[in-house]
Amino acid sequence: MSVYNFCAGPAMLPPEVMKKAQKEFIDWQNLGVSVMEISHRSEPFLELAHKSEESLRRLMNISNDYAILFMHGGGRGQFSAVPLNLHQEGKQAVYCQTGTWSFSALDEANKFTQTQKFNIRNDQNSVASVIPVDQWQLPEEASYIHYCTNETVDGIELFDVPKHASAPIVADMSSNILSREIDVNKFDLIYAGAQKNIGPSGLAIVIVKKDLLSRPGLAKPGIFDYALESKQQSMFNTPPTFAWYLAAEVFAWLEANGGVAAMEAHNRDKAALLYDFIDNNDFYQNNIDTSCRSLMNVPFLLKDESLNKAFLTQSQNAGLLALEGHRSVGGMRASIYNAMPKAGVEALVDFMFKFSKEHK
Ligand SMILES: *Cc1c(COP(=O)(O)O)cnc(C)c1O
């Protein structure tokens, strides 16, 4: 029986990458030792670091106006690092609110800087929706504008990028980085915890416009200091080398499989299959407006919630893992990141169809 892992994070990684990592686990590049057991300042590791950055630049078309940092502390580490680095005296940081993760980012920022909560949800008749980006009336002055491009828990994705005349645009892309084509030039700072679409947890990728590195911000730990990390090639202290290695392997896998454009087509295809099935079967429902449905995280409810437990047990027995929704929203959630093959979504839809027939 095939097993498909729908976990929201840490999420499945491409099986090809996992097999390669297994093969190289105790002897990397014929060194006779693991990549985990060598100095981050040794030549082979420095080459890995350099190549991974070049690979990510090609994948996302990132110009030399941006620095790329490989940092510690995952997504939430960046919830702290962003205000610490971008704080400006006398200005407020604007936090656009779309769901669980953007609420948490605001909570963390409140410890360090003056914030302004900016609500952009526009729910109607219990259907979740977001005000179109071109209608946001953002304040004229701000130290920066923060938003989340994909709300992993709520299943809400924003496809347009907000604009601001003077304030930098900062995006939490933890759960949709590399899943579809974006124009990096529309952003000033992009960050992502690695464990959804890139690699193991703990690592965070930061793509930051170099002109932001001269902002003094606030006093901060060295490991969260963008300017320092940029100057030190992300090696102010020992970086998470094994996570970095796996991220590099995932980037190489992406490049070998057609890059982000091919991933986007694959992801749109998978998401359409699942949403179409849910919309056309009155046993299930998804309460997100079609304009902002996530391509990565698909929450759904059984109309008869008393069947939730049976659904979870039977799906797990069928090899479909981790479909339980986040504890804060309940119901079900299928996370279908880059590494999820279409066959996984087909197996899920088959199971859901059979389950609905059996419990009619
Ligand atoms: C998972 C996630 C985070 C938190 O990541 P951690 O590495 O657990 O801190 C932040 N933002 C988004 C959008 C996420 O999906």
UniProtKB/TrEMBL annotation:
<feature type="domain" description="Aminotransferase class V">
    <location>
        <begin position="3"/>
        <end position="348"/>
    </location>
</feature>
<keyword id="KW-0032">Aminotransferase</keyword>
<keyword id="KW-0664">Pyridoxine biosynthesis</keyword>
<dbReference type="Pfam" id="PF00266">
    <property type="entry name" value="Aminotran_5"/>
</dbReference>
<keyword id="KW-0663">Pyridoxal phosphate</keyword>
<keyword id="KW-0963">Cytoplasm</keyword>
<comment type="function">
    <text>Catalyzes the reversible conversion of 3-phosphohydroxypyruvate to phosphoserine and of 3-hydroxy-2-oxo-4-phosphonooxybutanoate to phosphohydroxythreonine.</text>
</comment>
<feature type="binding site">
    <location>
        <position position="152"/>
    </location>
    <ligand>
        <name>pyridoxal 5'-phosphate</name>
    </ligand>
</feature>
<comment type="pathway">
    <text>Cofactor biosynthesis; pyridoxine 5'-phosphate biosynthesis; pyridoxine 5'-phosphate from D-erythrose 4-phosphate: step 3/5.</text>
</comment>
<feature type="binding site">
    <location>
        <begin position="237"/>
        <end position="238"/>
    </location>
    <ligand>
        <name>pyridoxal 5'-phosphate</name>
    </ligand>
</feature>
<dbReference type="GO" id="GO:0008615">
    <property type="term" value="P:pyridoxine biosynthetic process"/>
</dbReference>
<feature type="binding site">
    <location>
        <position position="195"/>
    </location>
    <ligand>
        <name>pyridoxal 5'-phosphate</name>
    </ligand>
</feature>
<dbReference type="InterPro" id="IPR022278">
    <property type="entry name" value="Pser_aminoTfrase"/>
</dbReference>
<feature type="modified residue" description="N6-(pyridoxal phosphate)lysine">
    <location>
        <position position="196"/>
    </location>
</feature>
<keyword id="KW-0028">Amino-acid biosynthesis</keyword>
<feature type="binding site">
    <location>
        <position position="101"/>
    </location>
    <ligand>
        <name>pyridoxal 5'-phosphate</name>
    </ligand>
</feature>
<comment type="subunit">
    <text>Homodimer.</text>
</comment>
<dbReference type="InterPro" id="IPR015422">
    <property type="entry name" value="PyrdxlP-dep_Trfase_small"/>
</dbReference>
<feature type="binding site">
    <location>
        <position position="172"/>
    </location>
    <ligand>
        <name>pyridoxal 5'-phosphate</name>
    </ligand>
</feature>
<dbReference type="GO" id="GO:0006564">
    <property type="term" value="P:L-serine biosynthetic process"/>
</dbReference>
<dbReference type="GO" id="GO:0030170">
    <property type="term" value="F:pyridoxal phosphate binding"/>
</dbReference>
<dbReference type="InterPro" id="IPR015424">
    <property type="entry name" value="PyrdxlP-dep_Trfase"/>
</dbReference>
<dbReference type="InterPro" id="IPR015421">
    <property type="entry name" value="PyrdxlP-dep_Trfase_major"/>
</dbReference>
<feature type="binding site">
    <location>
        <position position="41"/>
    </location>
    <ligand>
        <name>L-glutamate</name>
    </ligand>
</feature>
<keyword id="KW-0718">Serine biosynthesis</keyword>
<dbReference type="GO" id="GO:0005737">
    <property type="term" value="C:cytoplasm"/>
</dbReference>
<keyword id="KW-0808">Transferase</keyword>
<dbReference type="InterPro" id="IPR000192">
    <property type="entry name" value="Aminotrans_V_dom"/>
</dbReference>
<protein>
    <recommendedName>
        <fullName>Phosphoserine aminotransferase</fullName>
        <ecNumber>2.6.1.52</ecNumber>
    </recommendedName>
</protein>
<feature type="binding site">
    <location>
        <begin position="75"/>
        <end position="76"/>
    </location>
    <ligand>
        <name>pyridoxal 5'-phosphate</name>
    </ligand>
</feature>
<comment type="similarity">
    <text>Belongs to the class-V pyridoxal-phosphate-dependent aminotransferase family. SerC subfamily.</text>
</comment>
<dbReference type="InterPro" id="IPR020578">
    <property type="entry name" value="Aminotrans_V_PyrdxlP_BS"/>
</dbReference>
<comment type="pathway">
    <text>Amino-acid biosynthesis; L-serine biosynthesis; L-serine from 3-phospho-D-glycerate: step 2/3.</text>
</comment>
<dbReference type="GO" id="GO:0004648">
    <property type="term" value="F:O-phospho-L-serine:2-oxoglutarate aminotransferase activity"/>
</dbReference>
